Amino acid sequence: MTKSIGIVETRGLAISIQIADAMLKAAEIRLLRQETIDLALVTITIEGDVEAIREAIAIGTRIAKAANQWVASTTILRPDDTLTALVEEIAIKP
């Protein structure tokens, strides 16, 4: 399985937890990191196969936009090994 990476950024911790839960329940993905930035922005980073990432990001984006808390989302399909290593290194730091 070729891993891909997905990122959803929201305003607010509570909505980001709801989004992470919905994405994890909807698709076969792994949560790499959920990071609060600047007291308002929360970034959720996930990994999984291409279709799972697309499905999870679509669900997360839809929930965030419905709550008017969406900032950005992106998918990186089949990232270079160097980028994957960088994301995993960031994800394991406290």
Can you tell me the residue ranges where pLDDT is under 50 for at least 5 consecutive residues?
none
Give the class from helix and strand content and strand pairing.
alpha+beta
The name of the CATH topology is Alpha-Beta Plaits
CATH superfamily: BMC (bacterial microcompartment) domain
Range of strand content: 25-35%
- Rg (CA only): 12 Å
- Say how many strands there are: 4
The shape, in one word, is globular
Mean pLDDT: 89
Oligomer: single chain
Number of domains: 1
What is the helix tally?
3
Overview of this protein structure:
- This protein has 94 residues and is α+β, with helices and mostly antiparallel strands.
- It has a single domain (4-92), classed as Alpha-Beta Plaits (2-Layer Sandwich).
- It is 46% helix and 34% strand.
- The protein is built from 3 helices and 4 strands, in the order E-H-E-E-H-E-H.
- It has helices at residues 13-26, 50-66, 81-92; strands spanning 4-11, 29-37, 41-48, 70-76.
- A 4-stranded antiparallel beta sheet has the order 2-3-1-4, sandwiched between helices.
- A hairpin with a 3-residue loop joins strand 2 and strand 3.
- Helix 1 runs antiparallel to helix 2.
- The longest helix is centred in the middle third of the chain and has 17 residues, at 50-66.
- It is globular, with a radius of gyration of 12 Å.
- The mean pLDDT is 89.
